[in-house]
Write a structure and sequence with these properties.
Length: about 500
């Protein structure tokens, strides 16, 4: 076909409503995510609780509605009681998941306080590795019961008279992984997750619960794990989790930018498995997906292998993200929005320092990595109804994925302000891509802005010394004429085109 892309733009071509929690993130007690990340007493920007104000400002800029906590692999060996009460009495523990020393200076109460300052909500994970239903229901009581019981009164004695009111809870983490502390078979996990879900919802009937899916689509038990776990838990949980990370270890950028096609296939496979269990059980309930870990992760592997164990907050998983990483993150965001009918929550893993859009220096500054910007754009402008654009695009051939469309794109219609936003990645590394719309007459709209991230060096990064090396800019030229949108997408670029009613 001619070297241009055509998309069918119409407000009625709806995929589903975008749950704002699609733009969630993740903080784990891992590396410098907590200590030196969100929390650093004595830092020039720290507040009275020790939370870094410069980090809070950058987090608020993402408008992230929910943050998963405290893990991750960490949670499968975590005693939540270690992190409450007077700080001077909290124990230091060997943390086996990441071979670090955990000081427990930040726990559930502090994290709830931080979330309120950041303008976000908590997605709390419970330990189903070394612990089980009893500890999980006690934590729900501590967090959510108003008072008059042992655990709720302890929360009040610890300075929080009002309940934390945490509504979203994860039933463990990656329980199929041999690396997980006390990992389980699907039958073992399904049974304990079912019983844990029951007692948690008996303690607070208003909870939304996430069962552990496979820790990756490449696991040998996928998707039989999902089918077995849901056989036990289907009527007691509301979501099943998905996790995926991608890397460019082969330094093959066309292949790397196509990896969101694998994410798309992963989502479709889990949806099909959920619906199989629904049919098997003759259920009227539809299960939704929580993609509560996703990102690019590969840069830091070699450095992490050399890290000395048993340090407090060592610099682990500190990937320095390139411009091409931001392009794939953009493709992954588009993929999540394309599945907004079933993927209702997602967590960019993680938020600060650990495979994160925000980086800090202990005692020093903080800055935005390249991946900050597509995530910010999607969070700010991707609220409303996801639109199927029926994209017709040139393609290239990849040995792993076959035909890969040059254009990755999705639309979102926001009825509150009568705006349509297009998110688009041009995967072509050499040629710009002309874009035209078909379908709806857009004469009543104008192009409000066309934001572009582009850089001549695919490996370009942002640093504390050069934080604005890779940033979005406004581009002129996109216009509506004769009721049709026309735009030019630069080679290897992330694009946000916002249309507003005249």
């Amino acid at each position: 076909m001619e070297h241009k892309a055509i998309l069918t733009l119409h407000e009625e071509f709806a995929i589903g409503e975008v749950d704002p929690r699609l733009y969630g993130s993740f903080i784990e007690h891992l590396g410098r995510a907590v200590y030196g990340g969100i929390y650093e007493p004595g830092h020039p920007a720290a507040d009275e609780q020790g939370f870094r104000g410069d980090v809070l400002e950058l987090v608020r800029g993402l408008n992230t509605p929910i943050v998963r906590y405290p893990g991750g692999n960490f949670v499968s060996g975590y005693n939540w009681e270690d992190g409450i009460g007077p700080k001077e009495k909290r124990p230091r523990r060997l943390e086996l998941a990441w071979r670090s020393v955990e000081t427990n200076q930040v726990g559930v109460d502090e994290f709830v306080d931080w979330c309120r300052k950041a303008g976000t909500q908590v997605m709390m994970a419970v330990n189903l590795g070394t612990r089980g239903p009893e500890e999980a229901r006690n934590l729900v009581e501590y967090c959510n019961h108003p008072g008059g019981t042992a655990w709720s009164d302890l929360r009040r004695a610890n300075g929080h008279a009002d309940p934390h009111n945490i509504k979203v809870w994860c039933l463990g983490n990656e329980m199929d992984g041999p690396w997980q502390i006390c990992h389980k078979t699907a039958e073992e996990y399904g049974r304990v997750a079912c019983e844990t879900a029951k007692v948690m919802k008996w303690t607070d009937p208003n909870l939304e619960l996430v069962a552990c899916g496979s820790s990756g689509s490449g696991m040998p038990t996928f998707p039989a794990w999902e089918a077995t776990v849901l056989d036990h838990t289907y009527e007691h949980v509301d979501y099943i989790s998905l996790h995926t990370y991608y890397g460019n270890q082969k330094n093959d950028t066309p292949n790397f930018l196509a990896k969101s096609l694998d994410m798309d296939h992963f989502i479709r496979s889990v949806v099909a498995t959920c619906d199989y269990v629904k049919a098997k059980k003759r259920s009227k309930k539809t299960l939704y997906l929580s993609f509560d870990e996703w990102n690019v992760w590969f840069h830091s592997h070699e450095a992490d292998r050399k890290m000395e164990p048993w340090q407090v907050a060592p610099p682990l998983l500190e990937d320095v993200y390139t411009f091409e990483d931001a392009l794939l993150v953009g493709c992954m965001l588009i993929t999540l929005i394309k599945h907004a009918d079933r993927v209702k929550m997602a967590c960019l893993a993680q938020l600060v320092n650990v495979i994160a859009p925000i980086m800090t220096v202990n005692g020093g500054g903080a800055w935005r990595q390249t991946i900050y910007y597509p995530f910010q754009h999607a969070s700010l402008f991707g609220r409303g109804t996801a639109l199927n654009l029926n994209v017709r695009s040139p393609h290239y051939i990849d040995a792993e994925f076959g035909e890969v469309p040059t254009l990755e794109a999705v639309g979102v219609f926001n009825p509150q302000n009568d705006e349509i936003t297009l998110f688009a990645v041009n995967r072509d590394l050499e040629k710009s891509l002309p874009l035209e719309s078909a379908g709806q007459d857009l004469s009543g709209y104008r192009v409000k802005e066309h934001l572009v991230m582009v850089h001549p060096d695919l490996k370009a990064v942002n640093t504390l010394e050069n934080p604005n090396n890779v940033v979005p800019t406004r581009r002129e030229g996109a216009h509506i004429a004769g009721g049709k949108l026309s735009a030019e997408l630069p080679a290897a670029s992330w694009n946000v085109i916002r249309l507003a009613k005249i």
